[in-house]
Amino acid sequence: MPKAPTELADEVREQVKDKKSYLGVIDRLNKASVDKHWEAYTDIPWDDPEFLVDKNDPRWVLPPFDRLGETAWYQSQPPEIKSQIGLWRVATAMKIGLQFENLLKRGLLNYAYRLPNGRPEFRYVYHETTEECHHGMMFQEFVNRTKMPIRGMPRALSLIAQAAPWIPLVSTEMFFIFVLGGEDPIDYVQRKSLKGGHIKHPLEETIMKIHIAEEARHISFARHYLKHRVPNMHPVRRRILGIATPVVLGVMARIMLSPPGPMVRHFNIPKDVVRAAYKNDAAQAEISNSVGKIRDLMAELGVVTPVNKQVWKAFGIWDEPKQRRAVEPAKAA
């Protein structure tokens, strides 16, 4: 079973002071993808009896930090309903994850399509795309084994999201904000769940550890790309990026962390229970915390201004950055 990743913990906080250090990061990420990677149908023992997905398995019960799991309504449900709700939550997160990664892969390939010969980003993008393909396969295989009518993103949002793969043709910087907006909230929840010992089923644990390990590379590249490019953006484009960033993050974090509507309807969860669980200060703080690393990065890059700070606040995802460090401009590739 994959171990929790540690090798990139320092790298994601590394300063990119010049083009040489930026290229060095890409070389290390490319090497890491060759040295350690997983395949969906080779490295997960799907047919192991211990990995069987039973919707009534008590190991699916919502963890203590889940807001719905804390409610009196949830606690009063029969054990099998508690398990089914917990499994639905896990499966929905995976379905939304594979849908997001589908958009991500298409966007990455659009970005790579225009890269000149010899650019190291090309090889990295294809490593990431390959890894995301395996993530999508393992997520969908898990969803299939639940035998639940899991839908993922709301239909209207899914239609709007089809524009995402074309963002690199307009702004590669905005595209990698989109990438972090989808990856960071999921990474935040998964790491918190593993660290707290809340993952009880071995199949979920194995999938989650594989995902965290490889997403560490993907998050690292996106962060370093932004550190390399944003300091040299045209002031007008930087202002647009500064306003668009909290909008993208505010919407995406809620998609990743909010309860799925089909689950609420399927289990007849009362509206007042949903409001009590997810529309309070603690739930809002969780959403804000899930984008904390990106918020700190934007402040570090000098993108946050008194004007766009109001947009962060309007979406409920503002908190004072933990660090404010000047980034030396690097010559964009």
UniProtKB/TrEMBL annotation:
Pfam families xref list: AurF (PF11583)
Top-level taxon in the UniProt lineage: Bacteria
Alphabetized GO MF terms: oxidoreductase activity
Name of the featured protein: Diiron oxygenase
Organism: Actinomadura citrea
